[in-house]
Amino acid sequence: MSYKEDFVNGIFRENPVLRLMIGLCPTLAVSTSAINALGMSIATAFVLIFSNLFTALLRKIIPDEIRIPVFIIIVSTFVTISDYIMQAYTPDLYKALGVFIPLIVVNCIILGRVEAYAYKNPVINSTLDGIGMSLGFAIILTSIGIIREILGAGTILGITLFSPDLAAIVMILPPGAFITIGFLMALLNKLEKRDI
Amino acid sequence: MDQAKNLFSIFFAAFLINNILLIRFLGLCSFFGISNHMETSIGMGTAVIFVMMISSAVSWTLYHFVLFPLHLEFLRTASFILVIAALVQLEELYIKKSLPALYRSMGIYLPLITTNCAILAVAFLNIDYNYSFIQSLVYAFGVSLGYAVVILLFAGIRERMSGAPIPKLFQGYPIAFITAALMALAFLGFTSMFGF
């Protein structure tokens, strides 16, 4: 595959959340506001890009039989780094995201990409794949965050759009996450049908 | 008496009020992935109860007797996931050998559980909440029972839904998400049960 294809693949054709149905837990849990969603996207992108990069670098010396434990150690190293960085520099965000930061380690998107792509491809391709996949994840996560924040609190990134009395508070409560993603998937079905 | 009351409130908070699937959004991949049949849901539910109890006990012991005294807290993420993955393998071997009836009902779900983020999350939360050994076991039992009950209810609804007239755009996953939203709405009703 060319570099451009590697990059675009994760954003559209194999979008992790809506097409492959993986990485659902963080998508639903942290999308209560646009800023939380953005923070989670950046943390996941950091882990995914560097795990892909290092797996691709080490792919010739990792023995095939124990590759999964090795991947887990590579991924959890970067998760621990981002965990401590966020704890030190963005304490509010760290508190809002809570247990979902260490849980990036079991995000299927990361282990899936490392196993299916970075282990078999050169360094530059793998890094671009990581960037594309992270962007695909970030776009969905942030748009769900924006939709829920506007409908549920009447604000966007903390800026008031309309009075909170008019907002449907259920959208920032747990049911709102399920409703939003259900309607987004139906919308995607509709768009797909028009293409054919 | 006070201690019993405390354990009771931990159990119900984990079981209903902060239900792991509908309110905390953990373990959703398996929730949507395998809940289309009643039997598979029963198998997954029992497997989660079993593994979560054992992995909570082991990870609690590991943290408080090894990592904490040696000042190795930064290894928490890496060590927990490796220990849980190894533990699941051991449990699978043991059940296959000594409890063949149980193995038949939950065998194939055991390996899947390694990537179930609910298991790892409960191990982290036991540490974050500063629970004692008994408290963390009660917490793990409440959480896993909540998982089993909700996945069973959801599977029941989805089996009935397979014959229902659903708009084309919403067939499959979108309607499942909307159903989960309505269930989450019902579970929000438990919030004020104990004045939490």
Please outline the helices and strands:
The complex is a heterodimer of chains A (196) and B (196).
Chain A: H1 3-9, H2 24-29, H3 34-58, H4 67-89, H5 91-97, H6 108-118, H7 123-153, E1 155-156, E2 159-160, H8 174-195
Antiparallel strand pairs in A: 1-2
Helix pairs in contact in A: 1-7, 3-4, 3-6, 3-7, 4-5, 4-6, 6-7, 7-8
Chain B: H1 2-17, H2 28-34, H3 38-67, H4 76-98, H5 100-106, H6 109-113, H7 117-128, H8 133-161, H9 173-188
Structural description of this entry:
The complex is a heterodimer of chains A (196) and B (196). With 196 residues, chain A is mainly alpha-helical. Chain A has one domain. The longest helix of chain A is centred in the last third of the chain and has 31 residues. Chain A is globular. Chain A starts with a helix and ends with a helix. The mean pLDDT of chain A is 84. Chain B is mainly alpha-helical and 196 residues long. Chain B is built from nine helices and no strands. The relative contact order of chain B is 0.20.
Descriptive labels:
heterodimer, A: two-stranded antiparallel sheet, globular, B: 196 residues, mainly alpha
Summarize the entry for a quick read.
The complex is a heterodimer of chains A (196) and B (196). With 196 residues, chain A is mainly α.
